[in-house]
Specification:
Distance between the termini: 34 Å
Number of helices: 6
Radius of gyration: 20 Å
Order of helices and strands: EEHEHEEHEHEEEEEHEEEHE
Strand content: 15-25%
Length: about 325
């Protein structure tokens, strides 16, 4: 049994959290499982971000993968739950309830030896003298998270593509995973190409990729330097997503204007042009465009799609 958790915004602009239990998800209902994570005011948006759990969380819109191509067979999934879940309730674990433990065996990779860490993300290269901040491991109260196994992940990704799509939050996730995998596949590095960065292992015929799309929908710059956000345009980005086995989407940090200057000059919806629009209204329109594209272009029998919830703001109220 799976639970999809999402936020629904009704016509009264009231945000309600809804839990739906489906087994399995059919192609007729998954389009409604969209994590809007919207608030009706900028102040509410800020409160929502500050209350979001720490770590990697997905507000899930899942596509079931066919049994022959599943990343985890039914047996593997049951074994994981049995071996790693504790307490009376063996089938549930709240990943957001736990403690940070100092682990002297961390980090699991060397920042200086990973080609995926760009200069602005390399604390050591930028002069930070200490390293204790790298040695913390999250431990949920109700279950044991197994130590990361790079070889095991690549084996499960054999013949498949995993892609992170979004802004710098998704880039953080990609860089971390790519560096972990780089420890056992150091020859897999592929330089960035425009908006796409790829880790590819020829041995496993597997790739982990990052596609830069901070709004998910299209942002174009004219010859005059005007930035046009097309809240109903996604095809130019979507063509890169077709055929990917696992897609992890995220879009939140570039929308609210209280986090910095507005990232667009004009909003286009069809032939209508707007020089001013509430960021939350634009966000809703963009996510509706994204959800419609997913519904029409992704095969739920072949791909899994995740939408990641907003993360805490750590640096200057941003990342």
């Amino acid at each position: 049994m799976r639970c999809e958790e999402y936020f629904n915004v009704n016509h009264t602009n009231t945000v309600s959290k809804i839990h739906i239990w489906r087994d399995p998800i059919s192609s007729l209902n998954y389009a409604n499982l969209v994590a809007y994570n919207l608030q009706t005011t900028i102040k509410q948006w800020s409160s929502s971000i500050s209350s979001t759990m720490m770590g990697i969380i997905f507000i899930v819109m899942l596509f079931l993968i066919g049994n022959s191509n599943a990343f985890f067979s039914a047996t593997q999934t049951r074994d994981f739950e049995t071996l790693n879940y504790r307490g009376k309730d063996q089938m549930h674990c709240n990943l957001s309830s736990g403690t940070w433990f100092h682990d002297p065996t961390y980090p699991l990779y060397n920042y200086d030896q990973c080609p995926y860490i760009t200069n602005e993300y390399n604390c050591r290269a930028n002069g930070r003298p200490d390293s204790d901040y790298e040695k913390w491991r999250w431990q949920p109260n109700g279950c044991i998270l197994p130590r990361f196994d790079a070889g095991g992940l690549l084996e499960r990704l054999r013949g498949k593509r995993l892609m992170f799509v979004g802004d710098s939050v998704s880039l953080d996730q990609f860089q971390s995973m790519a560096c972990l995998l780089h420890t056992i596949a150091p020859d897999a590095f592929i330089p960035s190409r425009s908006m796409l960065t790829t880790f590819r292992s020829a041995e496993y015929n597997a790739s982990v990729e990052f596609f830069w799309a901070p709004f998910l929908v299209q942002l174009e710059t004219t010859e005059q330097g005007k930035r046009i956000l097309h809240v109903d345009g996604i095809e130019k980005n979507g063509i890169r997503w077709k055929g990917v086995d696992v897609l992890v989407f995220e879009s939140s940090k570039w929308w609210p204007d209280h986090l910095g200057p507005q990232r667009w000059d004009i909003i286009m919806e069809g032939r209508k042009e707007y020089t001013s629009m509430d960021p939350m209204v634009a966000y809703r329109k963009a996510l509706s465009t994204w959800a419609k594209w997913i519904s029409e272009n992704m095969d739920p029998q072949k791909s899994r799609v995740f939408f990641r919830s907003p993360s805490l703001s750590h640096y200057n109220r941003f990342n």
